[in-house]
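To whoever is on call:

I kicked off a structure prediction for a single chain this morning and the downstream step that reads the tokens threw a length-mismatch warning. I double-checked the sequence; it's 207 residues and nothing unusual in it as far as I can see. Pasting both halves so you can look.
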Amino acid sequence: QAGVMSAVADRDEAWGERADSLISGLELLRDRLAPFDRARLDFVAALRAGDLLLAYQAALRLVDASPGSVDARREAAISAARVRHFREALRRLEKLDPQRGLMRGFEQDYWAYVAGARHQLGQHEDELVAARRAWQLYPSEPAFQYAVLGALAALGRTRELDSAAAVWLPASRARDHMAFGIAGELMAHGHTEDARRFARYWSQRAE
């Protein structure tokens, strides 16, 4: 199991080569592996191959093999979100505590996945709560600033949106991209005039 776990943990430039080497070696020992370890092997191999559906199915087997494993439950929740099973992803995430045990180092991603799932389900008030929680934990992270702005745009809360954008966008190297995305979010939720105003204002700032 330690060998498979290291294949997941290493994210540096040599990750791919090491993962492939470990996967190949462990495949030779597949019949000797416990059910949890076989599921973990399949999970890592599927991620390496870019097959999100197979990774999701393997993650479910992880949970079946070890229902009490926080690691398995976390992977199942994330994998559900990756294959757009957003209600399932939320149900699984809500059973995890991001401030305890193995989840503590995962708190940033936890709130990002919650916010993303809420957004996809059109639950924008709850999305805003999750996005703000993530931003409060990591206030300098542009992705979380964007998540807050996107939720405000979806809700049509333009005064709050303008105030937050005035603080965050000028300091962002991705200002134009973020502004375009926020204008699109306003447009997508029927706030057409606000979308045009927002886009016009930030395009003028770029000149």
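Update from on-call: the warning came from a stale cache, not from the record. Cleared it. Sanity check on the structure: Confidence is low (pLDDT under 50) at residues 1-13.
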